[in-house]
Amino acid sequence: MEGIFAIWQRDLMKFVRDRPRLLGSFAMPILFLIIFGGGFSGTMENLVMNQTSEIEDFNYLTFIFPGIVAMTLLMTSIFSSLSVIQDKEFGYMKEILVSPVSRVNIAIGKMLGASTVAFMQGVLMFILIPVLGVTYEWSNILAVLPIMFLLSCTLASLGLLIASLLRSTQGFQLIVQVLVFPMVFLSGALFPVTNMPAWMDILVKVNPVTYGVDAMKKVMTGAGDLPVAAQNALGLNLQLFGRTVTVAEELLFLIIFTSILITLATISFRRANA
């Protein structure tokens, strides 16, 4: 536990002291809020209202804000894992690998460091709620926090695995840029991902962000209590193997996905020291 805490604390302190990184990570989510929230709100609201009469008042910003928070978690979690490659370049990672700290603890410490940083960024996004004019129940906001942290752990594990396999910062950034935007657009964060081609629907279902976004939207907006027709119109009736996926099942999927990625990252760390 001391090894895990030391690695976690180091990554957290690096983030707190890096103010440009703290401020810069808000740029992309705020840009998406302005573009999608301001430019597509009228179109999306009319589209949803026309699909069902069971939704009397639909605010598109209320719908996409949890998705924007999930986008913040995605980008921060994965890019925070870049520190693994930086540690390799400066020799710090080699010192950790030859220390008595087990590879599992190294992977868990790096994952917790990146996920904690992402979670803090996601929580700070809630400051924008009064500015956007959207409203959420405080109980729903508190209930979504564990989901946010679990999603951060999943995405940090993915970034950790990628970083453990690469040796250059440029290669990491190139691969991450190719992954990030498809994962965002195929998650339902900005618009419903229903009625998609079969091959694209497969990508949606294997995307871990999809389950995190769906769970966050259901919890924050209370959409899980809406009629089925209303959930279909909002794209929240996620189907897997012909049945609707519950929030509990989505969280279980994230836990399994995180466990697999941490295991693979641990194996990669062992090979790096072989």
UniProtKB/TrEMBL annotation:
InterPro entries, sorted: ABC2_TM (IPR013525), ABC2_TM_bact-type (IPR047817), ABC_2_transport (IPR000412), Nod_factor_ABC_transporter (IPR051784)
Example GO molecular function: ABC-type transporter activity
PROSITE patterns: ABC_TM2
Membrane topology classification: Multi-pass membrane protein
GO cellular component: ATP-binding cassette (ABC) transporter complex
Family to which this protein belongs: Belongs to the ABC-2 integral membrane protein family.
Organism: Marinococcus luteus
Subcellular location: Cell membrane; Membrane
Principal localisation: membrane
Residue intervals passing through the bilayer: 21-40, 60-85, 106-129, 141-162, 174-193, 251-269
Protein name: Transport permease protein
Source organism superkingdom: Bacteria
Keywords tagged on the record: Cell membrane, Membrane, Transmembrane, Transmembrane helix, Transport
Residue span, ABC transmembrane type-2 domain: 20-272
